Amino acid sequence: MVKGLYIGASSMITNINKMDVIGNNLANVNTTGYKKDRVQVESFNARLLTRINGSMYPIESGTGSVTSTTTDGEVYAETTNGYFRVDTENGVHYAKSMIFFKDKDGYLRTIQKNIGGSIDFLKGDLVLNNKGQSIYVGDNDFTLDESGNILVGGSTTDNLLVGIGPNDIGTISAGIKGYYVMTDFEQGQLEMTNSPYDLAIKGSGFFSVSTAKGEYYTRDGVFTINNAGELVNFDGAKLMGLNGPIVIEDSNFSVNEFGEVIQNGEITDKIKMTAFTNIGDVYKVGTSYYLEQPNMTGEKVDFEGEIIQGYRESSNTDAVTEMISLIEMNRNYETSQKVITTIDDMIGKCVTELGRV
Q1: How large is the average pLDDT for residues 90-111?
Q2: Which of 131, 146, 172 is a domain's end point?
Q3: Predicted TM-score of the model (pTM)
């Protein structure tokens, strides 16, 4: 019964976090280049419960059987008896099913994906064998058989399946939690401004701007000119080119789709653009600035999109969708609150009424 209090409370905390993120999205509906955020949730680690006394017969019996399918290197595995184990930052998680792949270092790891479907190599957890060890297959191809064996070159290297012991009852989780905030980099609509200083990015990639605290990435392309003739945003951050800050010597200038700045019929500089193979390698700082993760799992690549002059990229936040989500989160919060109240009343009756018996 008390476990239900934890589950209800974890749901309320998660919904509060979601409402905070949705509120921030709504506040930035009109912010140029803003990318909406989403709270990704997961259950707390499922713990294996065992008996101290009682029947020695397991609830599940028989030989464990594993079914699996592989698509583009992603393996979905499910077992009828027994469990898979995953090493998370909060301890070992027991599961009846999981999706995993071979990471770039040759280890088997669960899959976490960015919004849009690309794998975020920074988020996955290591898959454990039945001895509690991480599984390394190196550069080799592997398969998973019906007994849970990992086969490399036809030979068994590890077994994923943890059997049911005589005193094992099953698994239990303590509810859900907000795992992390993920940014949705979906393209925002391009709006015409007719200002030659406004630039929009079509495709994936970032401008580089220089501030007093260092260089940041951004999608905000609304610029103006400072006293030194440099293109700057409203924070005073300078738009960077390959030769340093972009300097405009004449109001009659143009920027082509490749980001080349043309003045008096000559290319004077090219806007510094950066793209990433794994968008999870960047994280948001403030409203519209981004930095690289300390340990990148992907690579920086050449920008393959287009720069469009005289346009701005609007926020990809849809106010109506966010309001609907906010109402839904509020109702979920109220439901969890009622669950906690009901359990509290039941505990109160147990204390006051059962004691009389």
Answers
A1: 87
A2: 172
A3: 0.73
